[in-house]
């Protein structure tokens, strides 16, 4: 999937791995310590800044949930808790292309849920 902040950059999900390319896919570097079911990008915090990456999966040994990274996957922030109780989440997520921190994900039978990072 293309990045909002760089036309030459791509995020790639292969199996449960996440790869990043800054040269239109000629080379790909895979992130460590993450297991992704779905990924999506959103609007950067500041014009010209890094577009956040949203992930449904596991990172930092914190278990399954929805995560966000603002530094190309070096650090992940968990946006959900076990108490959120979304149950069987369909692996589909995307960030809003116009609003920083806004993301959408599909649930299995409960519609589409939106979240907003503060």
Give a verbal description of the structure.
The chain is mainly beta and 118 residues long. It has a domain at 35-116. Helices cover 0% and strands 41% of the residues. A 4-stranded antiparallel sheet has the order 4-5-6-7, with no helix packed on it. The two termini are 25 Å apart. The mean pLDDT is 88.
Poorly predicted ranges (pLDDT <50, ≥5 residues)? Answer: none
Q: What would the average pLDDT be, to the nearest integer? A: 88
The total of beta strands comes to: 10
Rg on CA atoms, Å: 14 Å
Strands, helices and their partners?
Blueprint (H helix, E strand, L loop, with lengths): L9 E5 L2 E5 L7 E2 L3 E8 L11 E7 L4 E6 L7 E2 L14 E3 L6 E5 L5 E5 L2
Antiparallel strand pairs: 1-2, 2-3, 4-5, 5-6, 6-7, 8-9, 9-10
Quick recap:
The chain is built from no helices and 10 strands. The chain is an all-beta fold and 118 residues long.
Notable traits:
single chain; 118 residues; mainly beta; 4-stranded antiparallel beta sheet; 3-stranded antiparallel beta sheet; 10 strands; 41% strand; globular
């Amino acid at each position: 999937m293309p990045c909002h902040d760089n036309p030459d950059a791509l995020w790639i999900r292969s199996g449960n791995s996440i790869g990043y390319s800054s040269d239109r896919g000629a080379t790909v570097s895979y992130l460590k310590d993450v297991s992704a079911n779905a990924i999506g990008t959103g609007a950067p915090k500041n014009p010209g800044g890094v577009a956040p990456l949203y992930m449904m999966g596991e990172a930092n040994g914190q278990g399954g949930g929805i995560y966000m990274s603002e530094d190309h996957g070096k650090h992940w922030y968990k946006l959900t808790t076990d108490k959120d109780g979304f149950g069987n989440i369909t692996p589909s997520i995307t960030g809003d292309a116009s609003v920083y921190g806004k993301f959408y994900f599909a649930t299995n039978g409960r519609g589409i849920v939106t979240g907003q990072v503060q």
